[in-house]
Task: structure prediction
Amino acid sequence: MIELPKLPYPENALEPTISARTLEFHHGKHHKAYVDTTNKLISGTDLENASVEDIIKKAAADPSKTTLFNNSAQVWNHDFYWKCLKPGGGGAPSGNIASKINSTWGSADKFFEELKNAGATQFGSGWAWLVLDNGELKITKTPNADNPLTHGQKALLTIDVWEHAYYLDYQNRRADYLSGVIEKLINWDFVNANFG
Ligand code: MN
Result:
């Protein structure tokens, strides 16, 4: 059985970029539903005591387990997403990742432009990512629940671009939500910890 992880900050901590009402529903309803459905699907099976990562990998390899893949991957994606944000975050990259971003994209501004573009152009629901792929930084986007774990990549940073992540606060203005997250909320300490 897996558990709904607590948010790493109070529900109102990311205001005004992300409202308490959005986090109340996003964490308390959407994320919780992914946890509950995953638990229902693994109950009484050989995955009952498996880690979320193992559940995702097993389900990804089995076409009969699409629902389990979608729900368990969304559990992982959201847990990762909450950690990618923090009150008073955002702005210029810091630490070791900053020089790697500069050597990969030429400047932080160019990196932000491409990250924002990936999130804005993901058609429908999905995620924008910064990943490590064979030692190189890449910006990717994935549809629905898909994530870097099943592509042999290491996730460093993500932004949820499902409508439930921004619609209460920004309605159809996904680009404004992306700008807000990039400018005000990215937790560079977490990104650097993932980068190692
Ligand atoms: Mn979400």
Remarks:
- The first strand starts at residue 126 and ends at 133.
- The mean pLDDT is 97.
- The longest helix spans residues 20-42.
